Amino acid sequence: MSVVPEHVMPRTLRELVIVPDHAKRTPSEDFRKAKERLQEDGHYRCWVCGATENLHVHHFGIEWSLAHFADWKKVKDFCGEWDPYGYGRLLKNVPMTSPDDIRNLLVLCEPHHIGVDHANDNSGIGIHEITFPVFLIQKLAKDGIDAVPQNGETLQQAEETVKQNMSGAK
User: Where are any strands of DSSP class E within 15-125?
Assistant: First the structure.
């Protein structure tokens, strides 16, 4: 079996999205209730790392500013398939009409939401900063292994961690 050697994949992404004029976001009653429900049900911790401080609630299926473009049946179907807390199955017969619906929300700590590491070339670990497959490995990797340099960690430190944990992978 041939093996591709460990390597760094630097990327420069250019993303163009037309975000229409919209009212400044203020928490709706639906959002407040959903946030309370997440807390009551024990989900109010970072979905990636489990942190309980500096938490944000991310709209993962449809961004709040793009809600006017949403096909709510498609959003509901997506949130039912990618269902991190089980609300998609629980509410499968309830229509979806708002980005603040609990099925569209994901609790993240500040770094995993909007985190940018200015000391490390403005790289980031937040869902708004990196591609979704790379974001997910932060949740799905074995404990102590992270292919994404975390805030304050140098590229060399992250590479060393990956190398140390690859000894049995070949």
Answer: 55-59, 105-109, 116-117, 123-124
| Backbone φ/ψ region at 50: left (φ over 0), alpha (ψ -120 to 50), beta | left
Per-residue confidence in pLDDT tens, the chain, 170 aa:
777 787 777 777 777 677 777 778 888 999 999 999 999 999 999 999 999 999 999 999 998 888 888 899 999 999 999 999 999 999 999 999 999 999 999 999 999 998 766 556 666 788 888 888 777 877 877 777 777 777 777 778 878 877 777 665 54
Asked, for residue 51, whether it belongs to a domain, the answer is yes
113, 128 contact by CB (below 8 A): yes
Beta bridge partners of 58: 106
Judge if pTM exceeds 0.90: no
Give me the torsion for CA of 135, 50, 96, 16, rounded to 10°. Answer: -30
Query: Does residue 72 lie within any of the structural domains?
Result: yes
Q: Are 84 and 103 in contact (CB under 8 A)?
A: no
Q: Is 107 helix (H, G, I), strand (E, B) or coil?
A: strand
What is the dihedral sign for C-alpha 61, 75, 83, 35? Answer: positive
Question: Is residue 19 domain-resident?
Answer: no
98 shares its domain with 146: no
